[in-house]
Predict the structure.
Amino acid sequence: YTIPRANRTRWNSQFQTVKKVVEIPSSILNSILSDLEKNDLILNSKDRKVLEEFVSLFKLFNEAIVLTQGESYATIRLVAPTVLGILFDLESELGSSTSTLVSLCEALIASIKARFSGLLRYFEID
């Protein structure tokens, strides 16, 4: 297993790092951490669930960034559908009662609504 090193200048590098960690089976990851004497980093089931839900939420943002960062084609036309897609997906995630990241999801929704209020008014979305 390889885990990419997080980079300070790109938030999605941290997302990719966490995503790779979550892809490693718990038993293997915890064994590696134990061998490296990093017992404070060993994940219990609750920690792992939080990381999995973090990846699920931030996958939406990662996909949006990849979609809208094209260098050889115009991407401004993708902004509105991308923002609306993220908002609807976050609201759907919030509707699932099993999410341990409800407060994060609520904060992300509030931030999107504040930053893109004009766009949301244009499409008559509360």
Summary: The chain has a mean pLDDT of 86. The two ends are 44 Å apart (CA to CA). Helices lie at 11-23, 26-35, 45-68, 79-95, 102-115, 117-122.
